[in-house]
Design goal:
Layout: H1 2-27, H2 34-75, H3 85-100, E1 107-108, E2 132-134, H4 136-139, E3 140-141, E4 147-148, E5 157-159, E6 165-167, E7 170-173, E8 176-178, E9 183-186, E10 189-192, H5 226-237, H6 247-264, H7 270-283, H8 288-305, H9 324-335, H10 342-351, H11 359-363, H12 365-379, E11 395-398, E12 405-408, E13 411-412, E14 415-416, H13 425-440, H14 442-450, H15 458-462, H16 476-489, E15 493-495, H17 496-504, H18 513-525, E16 528-531, E17 546-551, H19 564-580, H20 588-600, H21 606-621, H22 626-633, H23 638-652, H24 662-668
Antiparallel strand pairs: 1-4, 2-12, 3-9, 5-8, 6-7, 9-10, 11-12, 13-14, 15-17, 16-17
């Protein structure tokens, strides 16, 4: 009957709200699109009816709870809980276990725990501790019925870390709850506290459920199977450090830790619990649920135990929100009018859910952190000044066990802390600096991507931005400079395979363009050049062919930044050297003509002329490939073709020998 009345009530109010919405569309919302009008007319009544029924159910529930409380005061007895079939099965297991025990103890009724105040979590001497209004106090009631003391464990309640409890013949250590579980009143349903290890329940002889087949998503010791109980107890007894067990067992243990910290609010175990939770996170570093729930606990717990000035930046993203401790630390500094250092700005960026850091930031993490601080300090030598937001910081902590939750409203020096969550400009500034740093680390990142074992090698160090050389010193760099200097004194020619072996520590039988480019970039950071220029050469040299080492005159981080005149002059030089090779020998006049061609090239820097001279030496030492030359000429413009034709004619007559039709045939094709 109640469901029929509810159906009529829902239909009546939906029709009423629908009529009102249609009137509003006709009279007020005529300018809206048709789709928007339809959504408003038919969607809003559904929302209103749902909200109305939700509110009505809450009122009915509140009245039921009030009536139950009144009845308890009159009869001085606990209201009868709804007993499910599952609970009946557990009670039967308890009776069988009690009957099997040979030692019987007199019944002892546990005292009803006193009401606890969860309004604040305040540690002695901590002025920055956050407030916690725990909802758990509304649900928590002790089990009033008497029970027999357990023969396999004389301890009851919380077991400190220095003590140990024995359950089902297993010494499980401390930092757990043992005994008859508390009954938590959730909306009229009586649920047993998940963390309590009830010694009266049956336990299998061996724990062979490491995969957690008998575990639910929110496991409770009283609800899991006997096999899972045995597995959990063995995990506790074996040191709680084996990650091969399903994470559900670790969570069951963690439920007790968070209850002890937030609900019992005792100072005796606070630091031990925080240290233990940090250790548990390290057991499952890739599990997102572990990182989320245990990370949120540490975020609040650490704040409750630490002064704001003692908090340190974190550079690990923990979830889809900024860590609460980070928001508190930065907000407290802004409230005092302080500027933000590079560490705090970088922490803000790396923990922000909308930040985007490309591969070099993770593959070259230490280099990224160091270079960001250098570039940030260059741009903001006195720190970043950020305006204090008006919104105050607050958050809600929801227990991983789902058994309690609370609101946190922290203060610093007795004043509310500003909330930085909505600020955008500081994050945008940090992202700009980070993008510049990532671009500077791109070459090193690509090298390490091709050579995962190359970290720490000479080439990897040489590819570091110059600003980082002093922070990441290498004793092998000076030896490399002496080696390159000796090669140049002997003419500069050396097999390519020898260069790669010196830089990478191993000899390669096949050398690609990327490998050659990385070698040239590494040498350029030391002030040495490598010819042929790998980015603009017609072809890459073979491992056994020689290359030319030469002085660049300065350390260069970006070899690719050259002028268009340099690229054209390099092509003309390649064509002219091909002509010089046509008769099988290089005459002195031809060599001088090529040198004069380099000297007469316009709009070239001194460094570009040095690179052309080294490439000329390579062209003369290694004959060019005709096929590659023709292919390259297809991309050359008309004006450049005229200049190249003139260079070819000049080179063809440099030795006084006329080669009729040669240049015309070569350039036209």
């Amino acid at each position: 009957m109640a469901s029929i009345l509810k159906l009529f009530r829902v239909l009546f109010f939906y029709a009423l709200y629908l009529l009102l919405c249609i009137v509003a569309v006709v009279t007020v919302l005529e300018g809206w699109p048709v789709g928007g009008q339809m959504l408003f007319a038919f969607g809003l009544p559904i929302v209103l009816v749902w909200w109305q029924e939700k509110r009505r159910s809450r009122k009915v529930e509140a009245k039921a709870v009030a009536a139950e409380t009144t009845n308890t005061k009159v009869t001085q007895s606990e209201p009868v809980a709804r007993v499910s079939a599952h609970e009946k099965r557990i009670e039967r297991e308890r009776e069988r276990t009690r009957e099997a025990n040979t030692v019987q103890s007199p019944s002892i009724a546990p005292p009803k725990p006193t009401k606890q105040n969860y309004s604040e979590i305040v540690r002695p001497g901590q002025t920055a501790a956050p407030a916690l209004s725990a909802i758990a106090k509304r649900y928590e009631n002790a089990r009033p019925s008497s029970h027999k003391s357990q023969s396999n464990s004389r301890k009851n309640g919380w077991i400190p870390a220095a003590e140990t409890a024995t359950v089902a013949g297993r010494d499980i250590g401390g930092m757990v709850y043992v005994g008859t579980p508390l009954l938590l009143n959730h909306h009229g349903y009586r649920d047993k506290c998940r963390a309590y290890i009830d010694p009266s329940l049956s336990v299998a002889r061996t724990g062979d459920d490491r995969a957690g087949e008998g575990m639910s998503y929110w496991p409770g010791y009283s609800d899991i199977s006997a096999r899972s109980r045995a597995t959990y107890l063995e995990w506790l007894a074996s040191g709680r450090s084996d990650p091969s067990y399903d994470p559900g067992y670790m969570f069951l243990y963690f439920y007790g830790l968070e209850r002890r910290f937030f609900v019992d609010q005792t100072n005796a175990d606070a630091q031990d619990i925080i240290a233990e939770v940090r250790r548990l996170i390290s057991l499952y570093p890739e599990n997102h649920s572990v990182k989320r729930y245990l990370g949120e606990f540490l975020d609040i717990a650490t704040l409750a135990e630490t002064e704001s000035d003692a908090l340190e930046p974190t550079f690990e993203r923990q979830g889809w929100e900024l860590p609460f401790s980070l928001k508190y630390a930065i907000g407290a500094r802004l409230d005092k009018g302080e500027t933000l250092s590079a560490d705090w700005v970088l922490s803000w960026l790396m923990c922000h859910p909308e930040s985007h850091l490309r591969t070099p930031a993770t593959r070259c993490r230490n280099e990224f952190l160091a270079l960001f601080k250098i570039r940030f300090d260059d741009r903001f030598p006195n720190g970043l000044k950020v305006s204090k937001p008006r919104k105050h910081l607050k958050a809600t902590y929801r227990a991983a066990s789902s058994e309690f939750e609370g609101t946190i409203n922290p203060t610093a020096d007795g004043k509310p802390v500003p909330d930085i969550s909505g600020l955008r400009k500081p994050v945008e500034i940090a992202q700009e600096v980070a993008d510049e740093v990532i671009d500077d680390l791109d070459k090193l990142s690509r090298y390490l991507g091709r050579n995962p074992e190359g970290k720490g090698s000479i080439e990897a160090h040489a590819l570091l931005p110059l600003d980082l050389w002093s922070l990441f010193p290498s004793t092998e760099m000076e030896a490399l400079k002496e080696w390159a200097g000796g090669i140049m004194q002997s003419g500069g020619l050396i097999p390519l395979a020898d260069v790669i072996e010196k830089l990478e520590g191993q000899r390669s039988t096949k050398i690609g363009k990327r490998q050659l480019t990385g070698a040239a970039d590494a040498l350029a950071r030391l002030g040495f050049g490598l010819a042929p220029d790998p980015r603009f050469a017609l072809r890459s040299p073979k491992p056994e062919e020689p290359v030319v080492l030469f002085e660049l005159g300065e350390q260069i981080e970006k070899l690719e930044d050259v002028s268009a005149s340099y690229q054209t002059a390099l092509m003309e030089l390649a064509l002219a050297s091909f002509v010089a090779h046509a008769d099988g020998r290089i005459a002195d006049a031809e060599r001088k003509a090529l040198e004069a061609q380099i000297a007469s090239a316009a709009v070239l820097s001194e460094q570009e002329r040095r690179r052309l001279q080294a490439n000329m030496a390579w062209f003369l030492a290694v004959p060019p490939d005709m096929t590659l030359l023709r292919r390259k000429l297809k991309d050359v413009g008309v004006e450049d073709q005229k200049a190249m034709r003139a260079a070819l004619v000049s080179a063809a007559h440099a030795d006084g020998v006329n080669r009729p039709g040669f240049t015309g045939e070569f350039v036209v094709q």
